[in-house]
Automatic annotation (TrEMBL):
Annotated ranges, domain Epoxide hydrolase N-terminal: 3-107
InterPro entries: AB_hydrolase_fold, Epox_hydrolase-like, Epoxide_hydro_N, Epoxide_hydrolase
GO biological process, one term: epoxide metabolic process
Protein name: Microsomal epoxide hydrolase
Keywords: Aromatic hydrocarbons catabolism, Hydrolase
Catalytic residues as annotated in Swiss-Prot or TrEMBL: 171, 303, 352
One GO MF term: epoxide hydrolase activity
Species in which this protein is naturally found: Cellulomonas terrae
Family: Belongs to the peptidase S33 family.
Length: 376
């Protein structure tokens, strides 16, 4: 595999083009201040103006470049990511798998903290972006579903010199983690999944026959509350190109597309997206999606996942754990009803993006999980 060091260097003309596009935005009518129809226009205007005039991409680019990165060629597809080796030579290799709609930026705070902690075990951290996300672009062809992504990540880990590793993932990254347990077998030391209440409010929720009538009623209310949240999924799993044109051509569409999900899926006690996620990191996540032209890539992955064949009934023996962020007692009742997982932890705050929302807690959970399972 062709894999080499990489440094982010967005050409000045692309940065200037972003600024100019933001200045020329055609805005829809401002008819509501709530979020029920999407990102409010007044809020989007304020955030876009901050992105255009106050946000410093070059400073964030420099911050990201302080972490070593790689660019791999996997069957002709560029795959970019972080590779933060610990100064402790015998640290445990750790693969971090992001979810939707994120990228390697999700782990920009977590990765260095895990590589060189003040105390406790250290890790050699690898955090690639899924093909089509971040700077794992452009997509060079169809077929990049979860199984193929897992295979690519396993090949990258071995190319970097890690024959065995721990994997941590949430959302789509949880699917990649599970696939690695199935396909990479004993090369996966253990797998830790992060989750939030949204995971039990979808059509893919595990069986709930064991719930009490009161719990079933609560579960139905959770699903009903999230029913209107899945429009993004409907269009991207059926007509990904229809939304890709806007995400690729309009920075404000890319901004509001991501920001709405950050607001919807983070800690409900936080009023605005920047109350849950640091504003610079949030805008860096959006900027990387913009500069990498990742709008069509994210849509493509969801389409591929929805249309991929699934081999039901496969099992594995890799130790697994789960960390739940958000106050919802039904999470364990549904996701680990018989207590079969090797590790379970819950936190009352946080949500879909724990590496950005609660990085210290997640880092502690990763260390505690590894102490609870056999690593040999």
């Amino acid at each position: 595999m062709d894999i080499r060091p990489y440094e982010i260097a967005i050409p000045t003309e692309q940065v200037d083009d972003l600024t100019q596009r933001l200045a020329r935005t055609r805005w829809p009518a401002d008819l509501t201040s709530g979020w029920e129809r999407g990102t409010p226009v007044s809020y989007a205007r304020r955030l876009a103006e901050h992105w255009r005039t106050a946000y410093d991409w070059r400073a964030q680019e420099q911050r990201l470049n302080r972490m070593p990165q790689f660019l791999a060629d996997v069957d002709g597809q560029p795959v970019h990511g972080l590779h933060v080796r610990s100064r402790h030579e015998h640290a445990t290799p750790l693969l971090l798998c992001h979810g939707y709609p994120a990228s390697f930026v999700e782990f920009a705070t977590l990765a260095p903290a895990l590589a060189d902690p003040q105390d406790g075990p250290a890790f050699h951290v690898v955090a690639p972006s899924i093909p089509g996300f971040g700077f794992s672009t452009p997509l060079t062809g169809h077929g990049w579903d979860i199984a193929r992504t897992a295979e690519a990540f396993d090949r990258i880990m071995r190319a970097l010199g890690y024959e065995r590793y721990v994997v941590v993932g949430g959302d789509v990254g949880a699917g990649v983690s599970e696939q690695l347990c199935l396909d990479a077998g004993e090369r996966v030391i253990a797998s830790l999944v992060t989750t939030d209440p949204g995971a039990i409010a979808t059509a893919y929720t595990p069986p709930t026959d064991h719930l009490t009538e009161e719990e079933k009623a609560r579960h139905e209310s959770l699903k009903a509350a999230r029913a209107e949240d899945f429009g993004y999924l409907g269009v991207q799993t059926t007509r990904p190109l229809s939304v890709a044109y806007g995400l690729t051509d309009s920075p404000v569409m890319q901004l509001t597309w991501i920001v709405e999900k950050v607001r919807e899926w983070t800690d409900p006690d936080r009023e605005l997206p920047e109350d849950a996620v640091d504003l610079d990191q949030l805008l860096t996540l959006v900027s990387v999606a913009w500069f990498g032209r990742g709008g069509d890539g994210g849509a493509n992955l969801l389409y591929e996942a929805a249309h991929a064949s699934v081999a039901w009934g496969r099992t594995h023996d890799r130790p697994q754990g789960m960390v739940a962020f958000g106050e919802e007692p039904l999470m364990r009742r549904i996701l680990d009803p018989d207590g079969h997982l090797a590790f379970w932890a819950e936190h009352p705050h946080g949500g879909h993006f724990p590496a950005m929302e609660r990085p210290d807690e997640l880092a502690g959970d990763i260390r505690t999980f590894l102490a609870a399972v056999p690593v040999g």
